[in-house]
C-alpha cells in the first residue's frame, strides 16, 4: 500500500450500487471548475472500436451539488444546463462541486460496462465524465465495494496505479490524466488467476464466468506456458537484442461466457470475451476442440500485439483522441491488418500451433476475402476511413460493398513480407520494418501519417525496393486488385497452393452466393452476393425459402437438396417475401470465385 498522493483536482468514485438493477453510481468531484461555467461530457466512443456509441444514453440520472467547505455546511443542489446529448454545463461562478450519475450497465462486450450479482466490469469511458479544459490534470479513481461485500469476496483487477487499497484492491487509484484513466479497464468479482514472467515483466490473466467445475478443471499450467511463449515471441520481435516489454506489468481480463468473442486493446492490459469451452481443461473427456483453444490464443496474441502497434506505434490522427467525434484515418489496414497477420504468425513461431494449422488459417482468411464482392469495389485505405459508417455498421449489403481491413490487411502484410523476402534473398522481412516503426514511432510517441510506412520501408529494405513497394501500394492498398498469393507463396515461401477441388454440393453453395440462417424451420436469407445464382434469380435478404426445385428446404436438408440437383439445368426457388409467395428460376451454372488450399511443399 502506497501513501495517498496530494488531493488531485479531479476525483472519481465508482460504486457498484445496484447489482440486481445493473447500475453503477459514479461521483465526480471538481475542485476548481471553470468560473465561466464548467462543461463536462461523456465520451461518444472508445479508442480501438471505431463507432459512435453514445455512452451517455446509459445515464439514468445526473445531479450536481456544491462541495461543503466544512462539516457544518450541507450540500446544495446545482442546476445543470444540458448542452447536447453528451455535454452538461455547471453555472458560472460555481466553486468546488460534485456531479453524481447513475449509469445502467448490462453490456457484456469488452467496450462498455456490466454489473450483476456475479461480476462487474467497466471502461471509464462508459462511467466517467470528462472535465473539459482539465483533462490534462492528474485524477484519482476510488473503487468502492458493493453492498454485502462480506458475502461476495469480490476483488478488483486493473493495472491503474494503486495508491491506497485494501487486501481486495478496493480503494484509491491514480491516473496521470483523463487519457490515462480511460486506458485502464476495471474488472470486479472473483477470478481464476494465471501468472507468469516474460523477460522479467510480470504478466497475469484473470478469468471470470466459469462454473465451479470448470474452475477446478482449468488447465492453468497449459495456459501459462502457452501465453508465456506468445508474449516472449512478441517481445523478441520488437526487441531482439535485449528483449524487454514497454510496460511494467500486463493484464489479460477474460470474461468467459456461453457465447461471444472479441477483445479491446489497452496500454498494459486487454479485455477479452470468449466462450467457456475455448479454454483448456484438464478433464479430456470434456475437452473443447483444439481449434477452439487455438482461436482463443489467437485473440490473446492479437490484443497483446496491439500494446506495440496501436497503443504506442499510433496513427497521428489519434493524437490526441477526440472522443466526441469520429477520428478518421486511412491506416487501419496497417494497424489492424498487420496485427491480424502477426497474431497467427506469433502462434506458429511460439510453437502453439503447427505450420500445417497456420497455413489452414491463412487459407481460410484468404478464401473468405475472395468470396466477398466488396473487395473489388472498396480499397482497404477507403475501408479504414469509412470504418465508422460501413465496417462497424454492417448490413445485408456489406459483403457486396465493403472489404475488411482486418482480413485483407492481413493478406497485405503477408504479401509485403513475401515481396521483401524475395527482394532481399530472404535476408530481410517485414519484421525489420516493424522494428523500425517501433524505434522511430513507438518509443518516441511520434504518430504515423500516410508517408511513415514509405520511410520505414525505404530505410530498412533500401531505396531499390521502392518501385516494388509503390506498385504494391497502388494495386493492393489504394487499389482493389487481389493479391496473387497463389503465385508468390510457391515462389518465395515454398508453399504449394493448389486450387480447391469442390464437390458438386460445395460448388453449388459457392455459386448460389447466398448466406442464410434457420428461422423457426425456414431458410431465411441474410445476404445475397453480387453475381450469384440467388441474386440472378431475384432472391433478397429476409426472404423465406420454402422449396428448391419443388423440394422442401430446411437447414438440415440443405446439402441433401442441393446435392440432388447434379443433373438439373435450372434452379427454381419458391419463397415468401413479406408473407407473399413468389417463384423465381435461373439457369444452373457453377460460376464462383476461385478458392485455394495452402500446403507445405514436399520438395
Describe this structure in words.
- The chain is α+β, with helices and mostly antiparallel strands and 603 residues long.
- It is globular.
- The mean pLDDT is 95.
Keywords, separated by commas or semicolons:
single chain, about 600 residues, alpha+beta, 8-stranded mixed sheet, 6-stranded antiparallel sheet, 19 helices, globular
Write the layout of secondary structure elements.
Elements: E1 10-18, E2 23-30, E3 39-41, E4 59-66, E5 77-78, E6 81-82, E7 87-89, E8 97-104, E9 113-115, E10 119-122, H1 124-127, E11 130-131, E12 139-143, H2 149-152, E13 155-157, E14 161-165, E15 171-175, H3 178-181, E16 186-189, E17 192-198, E18 201-208, H4 212-217, H5 220-238, E19 250-257, E20 262-265, E21 269-275, H6 290-305, H7 332-349, H8 355-371, H9 380-385, H10 387-391, H11 398-401, H12 407-423, H13 430-442, H14 452-461, H15 466-477, H16 485-493, E22 495-496, H17 504-512, E23 514-519, E24 522-528, H18 533-537, E25 544-548, E26 551-552, H19 558-563, E27 570-577, E28 580-587, E29 599-600
Parallel strand pairs: 1-12, 18-19, 19-21
Antiparallel strand pairs: 1-2, 2-8, 3-7, 3-11, 4-5, 4-8, 6-7, 9-10, 10-16, 12-15, 13-16, 14-15, 17-18, 20-21, 22-29, 23-24, 24-25, 25-26, 25-27, 27-28
Helix pairs in contact: 5-6, 6-7, 7-8, 7-12, 12-15, 12-16, 13-14
